[in-house]
Write a sequence for this structure.
């Protein structure tokens, strides 16, 4: 029984006000050396992987916090060059890319990193992203998921278009690869027509680890069908257990081994030497949020014109079914506000730390206990660790929480594999087109 | 008067049979450490830049030579991580990408490398590439160039969508960037509708060095209008002078400073201690070509069913105007064959070395003399160096030819700038949207 830990990279930290702390580097988000340093800390701590969220649009107002990001496959390649073991998971959109280009980029990242690439598959919600690609509004939720499913199918065909034994490099005969082991794919479907083969030989992992992070109905089905790791935002242990069981059950229904779908809820640890110290840091961060900015952003997410800071959420919010995009995040926020009867100001404080992910402020021992509790209760195969402040929150987690988890036999002391799939205990996929040897 | 030198990376070398030499690494094309090693040699030799050709399709038969390539922006990012000064030029297609995604990738490469990114803009000829993107056949030559022009226009708007002084990172006031210095672009044109802003702040160079390599009529116009460096294949000094004058003249007609369009013909040096040794190496490489494979590839390029190895080119080949894609390369090959009355076998030998670029076999002194002659005659602002065999051909060029050029004051002994634009003596572009300070 070993936990899997992913570090969710997010410039100066996941708390939206983290950049205002004296310790934070104001240009961290575009500083490659900074990202390389953090990834090395995570590798030294034996994390399974680092991960970057992404969307092809500028998020939020540039005044509010560090905005704009280095494109993830580029940033992770720069990290690959200074690390040797840690996995590298990049988010990329199936709605605003072409399968040939994206499959090639992930295959390239897998080659460059020696088998450490992962792809967080997203369909990209929002009209603003659509407007960067010639559209007026986002395609409907279902259309996006439909395209995503075919996108993954095409990508797998492209990744399999070279047999693993295609290259023989016979200098004497002058034959570099066997032509009959490199296949056109001739894919024709409702969304894509792609001839192939891919212009990169099959990569060390066969293809990147497939990750998914949407928790709507369609998102869960997609995860159960295609994903090998699932990132999810869960506020309570009860909800997390229900989600875990639901996705594993769906995976079985799709004929998959449920152990090959690893579920990692997000966790925002705020660690202090004492509980009081942890809560003080949390309060300090909350104090640094500009509430008017945050309320405006929350109003956009909830599709209302305006929110009163010192009142609870309005009663007449739309149902999830009426929401196109970021469905599960919408429901989570509305339920959190109503369950705990939070004012908008309080809700912003809670969301400022983790944008819907579970924030836990306490001592290292308390954080370790929570992790163990969730894991033993069947809520998590591992965690998506989202330090409120980087790099200090990561260092503290690595120095204080991980030794406790190791003592309890819950986390590795050394890497045993070389590839990202090996870290997650997942097999290298067979090639669907491979000829007999 | 200083020459600019670009190293054209091409796995084991530009000669198509180079991989068959005992010294060559058979998996060089997918080996990142190999590419990093070569780039370090080029940086040690103070080359302006390294460059990767590319197309989103598998070129040629995998049996013939190392096939498939790491995607160039990824490969150059891995090189950026282990170098500090040398420029990094990636080829990318305007026909099979979206401006938002590609502009972001090049901005990211420029950030990651500290201002060393260049983009070789190509429109991608060939039906086989089109068939990887849902089309049956390539768009017409003119349509591709029309889209390319608008693609560059949109990209420049996106690169300029953040003012250089947008980020203030004021921790006290909680203002990271000034919202009025980050602009939507609202581009609407025949090919693209893009809202913006880009989701990356403006990069060290403002935007990547813009490079172009097509020498057809449309290609020359495009180069004269947009390119800051031009790679070209020229077989004779006379043709090279004519091309040089023509492009500079066109640049002036478009209102540009002709010194801001650097012209670099390709040169394939095959260096020996004596002329005899150089010709022996050349002959050894020619002997390793499998002529039947090469003839089949040449026939495809020339749009004929079959070519007889020991006869000259057929008399009834189509005119350039009837060719859609790779127009200038087509004409160059046909003219070379006819001018020197080569058999197909001889022509293959000549092309095997440089695929239409000038091959020069001789001593280091003779190579240096040729470079100086072309430069002084007004045929070249620099050269695109394409060693027949890598890394040995590069090492020999660096160790034997460069000292002669330095002695003559024709090439730098040390970098004076930090960015790719600075190496090429080009200004950092102003921002078209910038507000007054």
């Amino acid at each position: 029984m070993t936990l899997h830990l992913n570090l969710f990279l997010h410039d100066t930290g996941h708390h939206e006000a983290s950049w205002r702390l004296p310790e934070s580097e104001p240009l961290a988000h575009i500083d490659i050396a900074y990202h390389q340093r953090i990834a090395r800390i995570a590798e030294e701590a034996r994390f399974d992987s680092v991960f970057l969220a992404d969307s092809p649009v500028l998020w939020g107002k540039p005044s509010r916090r560090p905005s704009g990001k280095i494109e993830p496959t580029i940033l992770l390649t720069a990290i690959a060059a200074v690390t040797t073991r840690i996995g590298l998971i990049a988010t990329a959109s199936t709605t605003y890319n072409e399968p040939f280009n994206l499959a090639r980029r992930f295959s390239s990242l897998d080659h460059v990193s020696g088998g450490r690439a992962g792809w967080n598959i997203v369909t990209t919600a929002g009209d603003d992203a659509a407007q960067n690609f010639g559209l007026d509004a986002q395609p409907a939720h279902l259309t996006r998921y439909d395209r995503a499913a075919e996108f993954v199918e095409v990508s797998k065909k492209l990744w399999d278009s070279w047999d693993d034994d295609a290259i023989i490099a016979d200098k004497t005969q002058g034959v570099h690869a066997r032509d009959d082991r490199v296949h056109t794919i001739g894919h024709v479907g409702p969304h894509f027509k792609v001839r192939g083969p891919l212009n990169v030989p099959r990569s060390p992992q066969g293809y990147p680890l497939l990750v998914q992070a949407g928790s709507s109905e369609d998102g869960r089905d997609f995860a159960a069908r295609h994903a090998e790791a699932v990132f999810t935002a869960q506020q309570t242990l009860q909800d997390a257990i229900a989600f875990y069981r639901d996705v594993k059950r769906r995976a079985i229904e799709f004929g998959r081994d449920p152990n090959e779908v690893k579920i990692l809820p997000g966790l925002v640890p705020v660690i202090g030497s004492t509980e009081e110290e942890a809560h003080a840091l949390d309060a300090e961060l909350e104090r640094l949020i500009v509430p008017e900015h945050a309320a405006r952003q929350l109003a956009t997410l909830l599709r209302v014109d305006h929110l009163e800071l010192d009142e609870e959420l309005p009663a007449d919010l739309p149902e999830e079914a009426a929401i196109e995009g970021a469905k599960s995040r919408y429901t989570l926020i509305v339920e959190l506000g109503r369950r705990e009867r939070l004012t908008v100001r309080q809700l912003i404080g809670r969301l400022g730390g983790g944008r819907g992910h579970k924030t836990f402020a306490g001592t290292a021992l308390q954080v370790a206990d929570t992790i163990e509790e969730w894991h033993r209760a069947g809520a998590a195969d591992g965690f998506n660790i989202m330090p409120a402040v980087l790099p200090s929150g990561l260092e503290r987690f690595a120095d204080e929480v991980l030794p406790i988890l190791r003592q309890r036999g819950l986390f590795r002391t050394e890497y045993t594999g070389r590839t990202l799939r090996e870290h997650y205990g997942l097999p290298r996929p067979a090639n669907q087109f491979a000829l007999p040897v």
